[in-house]
Amino acid sequence: MIYVKRVVSIATFLLGMFLILLITSFIFVPKNNMKGFGIENVPANGILGEKVNTVDVLILGDSETYSAISPMEIWNQKGYTAYVCGTSAQTLEKSNEMLAKALKTQKPKIVILETNAIYRKIKFEKKLGKKLGDKFSVFRYHNRWKHIRMIDFYTIPEYTWSDDNKGFYYDTTVIPSTNLNYMAENKKNAVIPEQNMQDIKALKQTCDENGIRLILLSTPSTKNWNSRRHAAIDKLSNKLNCEYIDLNMDEHKLGIDWNQDTRDKGDHMNYYGAQKVTTFLAQYLEATGMLHDHRGDEVYDHWHDSYTRYIENIKKGESPS
Fold it and tell me: Which residues pair with 218 in a beta bridge?
């Protein structure tokens, strides 16, 4: 009898804890995707506020993505709709999460993964924390406790906001790079962590299951890229049977000027470098023959409106966000 009571007590305690986590997670999860509601990675999560099935191209990866690719420029040049779901120090695990989140409301034809994330390791404790956060929102958004309102107790999330520049980070700072020989030949391959290999395979599988074309993209970076990493990603792309574009290679001839096109000594592109990367990407997307020009389609009028505000803010020297 004592043993049975203990089992019942433990089971009751665990059930109680589970219910508490469910209830508090419901309360703590942001009810909108605007900054004031406490959601993380606000620009990237602007994808949640886009009209259903209106995004052609989804871009995943770390800060290299939102520094180098401007979806509004793609819109202006080709009429394609792209959204950067890049986040700072994004791991492949996070990339998979952002893809799954976007696929709830979007059916992109193309997913672009910036390859720097493929080499980013994740510590066990962070991985565990993320798993808990995925299951119970209270672990991810526990810092919201000071801002809980009555409405959080009884409403479900409704995402209504989208970033005017679709995840792009506008910055005209110029800090040159002197590391101009960063792609010097090196016959060794860089090592991709085993867990990352599993994560990239999972991402490719998700793309395949949804009829999405996966493209691996290395944006220009004298700090993060080299010939060893290029060789390893080239080999990986063959295994995954997907395209690989390395904009650090001479054959693409972007005309990157490391005296003018980086904001932090070659780590990231600035606005001027992003214009060059984006123009190349827009032309590459056109060559796929998979996308349609949506300019003039009233369903996409909000993209025209976003572009107008984007340009107005750039003329003022302000961030289009």
Answer: 246
| 210: pLDDT strictly greater than 80 | yes
Say how many CA atoms lie within 13 Å of 52 toward its Cβ: 2
- Closest Cα partner for 59 from 202, 283, 214? 214
Q: What is the CB-side half-sphere exposure of residue 106 using CA atoms within 13 A?
A: 28
Contact present, 261 and 272 (Cβ < 8 Å) = yes
- Relative to beta strand 213-218, strand 110-114 is parallel
Residue 122's pLDDT band (cuts 50, 70, 90): confident
Q: Which of these, 142, 91, 97, lies nearest to 118 by C-alpha position?
A: 91
What pTM value is reported for the model? Answer: 0.87
Alpha-carbon distance values, 309 to 7, 84, 305 (Å):
62, 18, 6
Structure tokens at 58: 């989804």
Q: Which residues pair with residue 217 across a beta bridge?
A: 114, 245
Collapsed DSSP state (helix, strand, coil) of residue 59: strand
243-289 pLDDT, tens per residue?
Answer: 999 999 986 789 999 999 999 999 999 999 999 999 999 999 999 99
pLDDT for residue 214 is more than 90: yes
| Residue 257 confidence (pLDDT) | 96
E-only strand ranges, the chain = 57-60, 82-84, 110-114, 213-218, 243-246
Question: Mind listing the pLDDT tens digit for each residue in 45-81?
Answer: 999 999 999 999 999 999 999 999 999 999 999 999 9
Q: What are phi and psi of 236, to 5 degrees?
A: -65, -40
Closest CA to 237 of 221, 216, 267: 216
Q: 177 in the Ramachandran plot: left (φ > 0), alpha (ψ -120 to 50) or beta? A: beta
Q: Order of strands across the sheet with 243-246?
A: 82-84, 57-60, 110-114, 213-218, 243-246
Token output for 308? 């107008």
